[in-house]
Input
Amino acid sequence: MRSSRRPPLLAALAGAALSVVVSACSAAAPDAATAAAAAPPGLAAERFPKPARPVAGIVSDQWASEDSRERAGEAAKVMDLLDIRPGMAVADIGAGAGYYVVRLSRRVGPEGRVFAQDIERKYLDRLRQRVSRERLANVSLVLGEPHDPRLPPRSVDLALLVHMYHEIAQPFGLLANLVPAMKPGGRVAILDVDGPIQAHGTPRALLSCELAAVGYREAAWHWIEGRSVYLAVFEPPAEPPEAEHIVPCGAR
Ligand SMILES: C[S@@+](CC[C@H](N)C(=O)[O-])C[C@H]1O[C@@H](n2cnc3c(N)ncnc32)[C@H](O)[C@@H]1O
Output
């Protein structure tokens, strides 16, 4: 092992970093794409305030059946609205079963990259099998944490969070730790139901408030299905605020 030749502190740090790579690999296969996607940890979960509202439980790896979503043309509509083009690097945060992953992979093409990210090891493992079966060579699998997407620094043109924001147990940590992963000019797009958290949605005012609390600026707002589902686009801050200065919405 390379770490055995290091001084004890360095060896310990290297061991910690390696355990993340191994975690990601064991969840998602020890392939080059997975290892390349492992990123150094961001700020610790304990630094961030908890949201002052409920968090929905993780109950499934998909929002609805892919057939019904295709009939509605969901992914094509969303990718068009976001102007996703060949060569882009897109992170699908909370990728689940991969409805978006396979379509993003085709859209960004061989010069592009898709980071298929989730915090559930079993979902990521199933997704690895799908990625391998469908031979999606431009997809990297990433095992994140509830407060930290664990994406490589300055790697992402667009972070896409679909039907999952209401499940993020540590939204302030996730949003702050996402900032270093964004390329200059990168955007963060969130699709969710404009409804109560308990019904697996995120009310518009709550979403706007939580993003603003971490310094994100709203750049566009699209309604997808009547006025029930939105696609909100944000520009990340150059630097997130100090974690200890973030004030949860509802506690103002
Ligand atoms: C309802 S599924 C949606 C999956 C997919 N985006 C879709 O549209 O079908 C929500 C996904 O978000 C994931 N998730 C929940 N909290 C997360 C977090 N903090 N970071 C990344 N993924 C998370 C869950 O494991 C689950 O796969």
Observations:
- The mean pLDDT is 87.
- The chain has one domain: 2-245.
